[in-house]
């Protein structure tokens, strides 16, 4: 669990600021603007920095929140407190509609898509009569509690910063959870997360809606702060600026959003106030200087200022080892399970004219280690992808425990008890080893986003982390548990992937080149671990180029060449098979 005291200290400082004698009112206005901007940036942290979905369109969601309360409270006299849930709801619903078309986009189409609807909604706000067209809506009532009317910047300050602090707490809670790990895994692509049961479209939609709701909250507060709204602050330029705020502060960090908002709001204000004086009234130069300063900041700290600052702090948070005595229930295994775990029957995969897997058949029995070998490009990884649902077969059948897998997606295949590692390691480098491995236990937990935000997931979370810690210790990386996965050697990262796959409590483990990059002793330890797993009832199918390792370990070997199975048998038989020597072993000898 993360330390909460920095948040408490920050809350006390924020609460004390308005009471500092001689505090200029204008500074309070600046702090109000920083808080409003920080709320939007916090959503962008989750969306862009954590989830990897770049959005230029967040200002439009601020507009939905602001206009909803403006219309209802100014035109229909609805209490501002009643319009709060409605503002959040309208922003959230707008995100559902826009998200359905946007989050499916990939690469540069996604940011362009957000820019397109950001521009479109700005024009919509300025054309609709009931929103007051370009003039907007004025006469918005202030927020009030009993007889206290939040008319001046010094009183609404408390509402704005309470919203910032509560949102920061909820967002940190969300990120530090089962759902948060699924969201954080998205940035490295969807294949690894989906292999452990994460539905990435659902996770993407969740962050999209969450970011929009935070922007809507900012809009609701903004409307009652300025007491008038018009389309200008909700256009594409504002959308780009919000993204700047998040990136400058540190797009992967909740507090980066707050820091970025402070930097950008203060910098803009200082430049607008003092640059014209210095340059004798030359207009618009502040925009250019503002741009140059921001780019310089990004050169200094490319991942944002928050990580740059925290890396220089004299103290580091101390991570606690999970209590490994807490147990997750094991997978229920049928007493009379069939001896054939996996049956690959005439599987074929074509990519256009390339036949990557050519009518290949083999099986994996219970408590057996089978190796799939062959030269580069023989179709081994493609076979793994067919078995795990990453790719649909062109023809043929794959069945697990007698049940046809058909075209099941990876999320369904892992539920059958098949887990895997990847030829090209797919860990999230800036998540700890423990957090990466805990993604493997995703399907064994059940807490959702809301319960995580309110910390109702702790019992579930403790079990998942305990399981992850146990598997990390099992593979011999207990000392590295709290290190970032990206700081480990490539060989160790492969072992972390094995621990993640073990968290599924699989019946069949698919390992793609697990020994690549390992030193001799590490290979021996890996071999011992795999034998121990087999003795415990697990089966292993592995792709490996280290023939010494394979021959020592495997019960049976299947050899592929140009997508076709050319041999199958015990290591002794394969070693002396002339066709295998000609196609592969001769070359590796
Ligand atoms: N998505 C794809 N589109 C087109 N061709 C592909 C695709 N994936 C794999 N191939 C081709 O299919 C063939 C088999 O590739 P695969 O990666 O399965 O081989 P491999 O045995 O795992 O090789 P290596 O040992 O080098 O990893 C290769 O010719 C490869 O170029």
UniProtKB/TrEMBL annotation:
Entries under SUPFAM superfamilies matching the protein: P-loop containing nucleoside triphosphate hydrolases (SSF52540)
Record carries keyword Metal-binding: no
Signal peptide: none
GO MF entry, a single one: ATP binding
Compartments, as annotated in UniProt: Cell membrane
Topology within the bilayer: Multi-pass membrane protein
Residues in ABC transporter domain copies: 342-587
InterPro entries listed in its UniProt record: AAA+_ATPase, ABC_AA/LPS_Transport, ABC_transp_permease, ABC_transporter-like_ATP-bd, BCA_ABC_TP_C, LivM-like, P-loop_NTPase
TM annotation in the entry: 7-28, 34-53, 60-78, 84-103, 115-134, 154-175, 205-223, 243-267, 288-309
Superkingdom per UniProt: Bacteria
Keyword terms of this UniProt record: ATP-binding, Cell membrane, Membrane, Nucleotide-binding, Transmembrane, Transmembrane helix, Transport
CDD domains per UniProt: ABC_Mj1267_LivG_branched, TM_PBP1_LivM_like
Protein task: Involved in beta-(1-->2)glucan export. Transmembrane domains (TMD) form a pore in the inner membrane and the ATP-binding domain (NBD) is responsible for energy generation.
The protein, known as: Branched-chain amino acid ABC transporter ATP-binding protein/permease
């Amino acid at each position: 669990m993360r330390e909460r005291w920095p948040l408490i200290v920050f809350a006390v400082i924020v609460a004390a600021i308005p009471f500092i004698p001689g505090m200029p009112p204008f500074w309070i206005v600046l702090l109000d603007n920083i808080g409003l901007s920080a709320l939007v940036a916090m959503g962008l942290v989750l969306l862009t920095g954590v989830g990897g979905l770049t959005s230029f369109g967040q200002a439009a969601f601020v507009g939905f929140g602001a206009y909803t309360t403006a219309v209802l409270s100014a035109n229909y006299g609805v209490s501002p407190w009643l319009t709060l849930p409605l503002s959040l709801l309208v922003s959230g619903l707008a995100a559902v509609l826009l998200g359905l078309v946007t989050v499916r986009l990939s690469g540069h189409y996604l940011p362009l898509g957000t820019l397109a609807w950001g521009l479109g909604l700005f024009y919509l706000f300025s054309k609709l009569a009931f929103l007051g067209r370009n003039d907007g809506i004025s006469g918005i009532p202030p927020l009030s509690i009993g007889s206290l009317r939040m008319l001046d910047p010094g009183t609404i300050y408390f509402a704005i910063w309470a919203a910032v602090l509560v949102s920061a707490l909820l967002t940190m809670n969300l990120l530090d959870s089962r759902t948060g790990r699924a969201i954080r895994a998205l940035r490295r692509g969807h294949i690894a997360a989906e292999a452990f049961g994460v539905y990435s479209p659902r996770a993407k939609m969740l962050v999209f809606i969450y970011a929009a709701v935070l922007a809507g909250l900012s809009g609701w507060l903004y409307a009652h702060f300025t007491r008038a709204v018009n389309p200008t602050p909700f256009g594409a330029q504002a959308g780009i600026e919000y993204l700047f705020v998040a990136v400058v502060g540190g797009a992967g960090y909740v507090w980066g959003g707050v820091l970025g908002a402070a930097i950008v709001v203060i910098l803009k204000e200082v430049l607008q106030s003092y640059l014209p004086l210095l340059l004798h009234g030359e207009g618009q130069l502040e925009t250019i200087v503002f741009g140059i300063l921001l780019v310089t900041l990004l050169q200094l700290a490319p991942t944002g200022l928050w990580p740059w600052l925290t890396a220089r702090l004299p103290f580091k948070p101390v991570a606690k080892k999970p209590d490994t005595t807490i147990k997750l229930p094991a997978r229920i295994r049928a007493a009379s399970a069939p001896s054939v775990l996996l049956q690959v029957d005439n599987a074929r995969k074509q990519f256009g004219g390339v036949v990557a897997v050519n009518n290949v058949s083999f099986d994996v029995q219970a408590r057996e280690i089978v190796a799939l070998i062959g030269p580069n490009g023989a179709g081994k990884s493609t076979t793994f992808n067919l078995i795990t649902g990453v790719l649909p077969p062109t023809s043929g059948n794959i069945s697990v425990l007698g049940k046809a897998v058909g075209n099941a997606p990876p999320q369904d295949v892992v539920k059958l008890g098949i887990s895997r590692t990847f030829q090209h390691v797919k860990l999230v480098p800036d998540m700890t080893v423990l957090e990466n491995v805990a993604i493997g236990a995703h399907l064994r937990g059940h807490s959702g986003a809301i319960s995580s935000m309110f910390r109702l997931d702790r019992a579930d979370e403790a079990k998942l982390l305990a399981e992850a810690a146990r598997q990390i210790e099992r593979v011999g990386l207990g000392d590295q548990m709290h290190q970032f996965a990206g700081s480990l050697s490539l060989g160790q990262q492969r072992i972390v992937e094995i621990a993640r796959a073990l968290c599924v409590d699989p019946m069949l483990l698919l390992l793609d080149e697990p020994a690549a990059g390992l030193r001799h002793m590490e290979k021996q330890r890996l071999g011992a671990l795999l034998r121990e797993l087999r003795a415990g009832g697990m089966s292993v199918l592995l792709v490996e180029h280290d023939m010494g390792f394979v021959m020592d370990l495997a019960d049976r070997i299947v050899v592929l060449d140009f997508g076709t199975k050319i041999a199958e048998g015990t290591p002794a038989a394969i070693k002396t098979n002339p066709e295998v020597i000609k196609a592969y072993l001769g070359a590796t000898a």
